[in-house]
Amino acid sequence: MRTPLSIAAAQPLCVPYDVAANAVTHAAAVRGADARVVVFPELSLTGYELDAPAITPRDPRLEPIVEACADAGSLAVAGAPVPGEEGHPHIAMLAIDGTGASVAYRKMWLGEAEAERFSAGAKPAILVADGWRLGLAICKDTGIPQHASDTAALGMDVYLAATLKHEGETTVQADRARRVARQHQVFVAVASFAGPAGGGYTRAAGRSGIWSPDGALLAQAGPEAGAIARAILG
């Protein structure tokens, strides 16, 4: 029988472009979350700076997160630009545990400005943690019903989303989370940037949250950077 899964949606303070500093902050969030899975916002390791250099899973600056995951027994899902073909990088999610990092998912639905620099990912993706199947999504993906449907077709138990919204858009991500939860009967966890996030986002929305398959809110963080929403799924 599948055991309950502790999950946290973190919204750490971000220093734009500074992967090393942000990795240390991510590591502290992992250590403090007391969760098997910790998800971070879109481009959480660089901030929403679309010209930030792409990083690889072997980047030594990620080592503090690897060490924190090893100590806590956690799987962290962090946001970063990663290299792509023909010089066009991807907006991606990195899966990081005590053994290292890998590219887990590449954003499929890009915003207009994003499409000028990045390539879209080709397919949905699933991560598996303790028998739980985690469908992955990044920001605009969550507003595209086809994305959730295609990911659900892979057999997901949780829709794990990394987002960035302006301060006045808190209801948008909550509405999307409830829709996906109810339509596909899955848990939804959304990690949303808070505070300054780069790229003109001086006050991001925060209010990361976790929803049950019936759309009920299980946990929600406040608007401040550093807050964490945590729940146990069972």
Explain what the structure shows.
It is a single chain. With 234 residues, this protein is of the alpha/beta class. The chain has one domain (5-233): Nitrilase/N-carbamoyl-D-aminoacid amidohydrolase (4-Layer Sandwich), CATH 3.60.110. The chain is 22% helix and 31% strand. The protein is built from five helices and 14 strands. The strands form three sheets. The protein has a six-stranded mixed β-sheet. Strand 10 (194-195) and strand 11 form a beta hairpin. 52% of the residues are buried. The mean pLDDT is 96.
What keywords describe this structure?
234 residues; alpha/beta; Nitrilase/N-carbamoyl-D-aminoacid amidohydrolase; six-stranded mixed β-sheet; globular
Write the layout of secondary structure elements.
Elements lengths: L4 E6 L8 H15 L3 E3 L23 H10 L2 E8 L7 E8 L2 E7 L5 H4 L10 E4 L2 E7 L6 H8 L5 E6 L6 H15 L2 E6 L1 E2 L8 E2 L3 E3 L5 E4 L7 E6 L1
Parallel strand pairs: 1-2, 2-3, 7-8, 8-9
Antiparallel strand pairs: 1-14, 3-4, 4-5, 6-7, 9-12, 10-11, 12-13
